[in-house]
Structure formats: structure tokens, C-alpha cells
Amino acid sequence: MKSSMMVLSGASLAIAGPLLQREPEVDVVVDVVTNVVTSLVEYTVYATTTSSTPPVVHTPEVHVVTVTVQPTTTTTPTAETPNVEVAPATTSSSSTSTSSTAAATSTATDFADVAVYHHNIHRANNSAPDVTYSDKLAGFALQLSQGCVFEHDVTIGVDSEFPSYGQNIAMYAATDIENLSINEFLAQSISDYWYNNEIELYPGPYGSEPDMADFEAWGHYSQVVWVGSTVIGCGIAKCAAGTLESGMDAYMSTCNYYPAGNVETEYAANVLAPLGEASVTA
């Protein structure tokens, strides 16, 4: 278990950890400061399989990154009755999948556009093809987020079209969560937590199979840029205080990836060297 904490007059904690074959151990370290924000992220990794046995889902260690933010006026969290207050709806109520390529522009405001832009801008830096957006895959992601339980589930909705998929999840809890929109948290999850926080931690060398000793430190990054994962779908729910975090409302974000990334023995072909383009943040 890796953990650290910085106590400041206003701080946020980004806690990340890849999945190893054991029950998840997720420690949330929170101290009461002027404004307390807690963020967690997780992802899945699969082992190569040559039979009908589903890929192995691994469970993460914990990695903590502290980030200083400007202090704000102390606010008192208000408990809300429903566990799930709001979540972005998919654009189709049909049980069939619809896919589209959203415009990759920095001014994207639609939920799906934000998801596609923040994936494709980083994938381009790693010479990976653009992803398209699936409403069906997003529906699976939304269902997980609406449960307000910070655990992976890559069995939701699996069928002949999506027999398996990869997954990244993140959580953000704050006393003033209304100051962060759902779209802003989606962008933050993808660009800040899953890509920028981990790109320098990938062990390399690119073009070979990486040393898996510190797998928990970079697995979100490798899933975001995985060449073979070309379809995504994301969902975010707002969860009442006491569900994901005691005393604070929280957002839970989930992005699903098809085909799944983080497949053992396939990193050399799917995680390509970054080109060194300017960093893009949320």
C-alpha cells in the first residue's frame, strides 16, 4: 500500500491504482481543511486468454498524488436524499449501439464530444487512432456510476457486440462539488488523472513489454492510448454524501473501452512512444 498526504489550506488528493488479482484496497485519506477535495481513479487490466474463459480482472494498489489548490470559503455539505442526483443521459434510448466521431475541438461542450476530444488529443500524441463514441457502451458506464459504489464491473451489458471491455473509473468528492460541472470532471478524469499524471511513469522502453512491477502507477495512461481500443463510452453520476465519501457529495466517472486495453504481452504494439506534443489539461 502506497499513501501520502499533504495538509494545506485547500487541497485535493488524486488516488490511483491498477487492478491486481485480489480484493481492492482503497484508502481515502482526508483531513478537514478549508476546502477538502478527494479524488480516486482506478482501471482494469486483462491477461491474454486463448480459451472461452473471460479475461482476468486485476485489482489495484493505491498511489496518492497531492495537488495544492487555492483556498476557498468554508462550506457545509448538505446531505441529499437520493444516492444519485444527476447523470448525463445517452443520446439514444435504443438497446442497439450507435457510434459517432465527435469533433475534436477544445471548445467541445456536449458530454460525448468532451469524452472524445480529451481521449483523441492524447491518443494523437501517442500515434493511436481516434476513438468513436458508443451510446450503448456509455449506457453500461452510466449504470456503474449510478450505483455509487467505487468498484469496477466489466460484466454490465456484455453481449455479442461487446463481449468484454476495459474500464477506467474516478471519484471526486468535495464540500462545494456544485462548483465543478459534470463535463469539467469528465475532462479532468481523462486528461489530468488518467493521462498527465501517469505518462512520465510508464516504464518503457516503448516498443517492448514493460516492467509490471509498478503497474499500478501507469495503467490508466496505457488504457487511454491503447491502439486497439477504438470505441469508448462514458457516464458520470452525482452521489449523495455517505455513499462514496462520508460527509461529502461526490461524482463518479466511468469510461469503458472496446476492445479492452492493458492486455498482457500486447503493450509493445499498443502503447506507442509519445511524440512530445504540448500537454493538454482539463
TrEMBL record:
Gene Ontology CC terms: extracellular region
Region span, Disordered: 73-101
Keywords, in A-Z order: Signal
Pfam families found in the cross-reference section: CAP
Origin superkingdom: Eukaryota
Protein name: SCP domain-containing protein
Signal peptide positions (record): 1-16
Gene3D superfamilies linked: CAP
UniProt cross-references to InterPro entries, sorted A to Z: Allrgn_V5/Tpx1_CS, CAP_dom, CAP_sf, CRISP-related
Listed transmembrane segments: none
Sequence ranges assigned to domain SCP in this UniProt record: 110-265
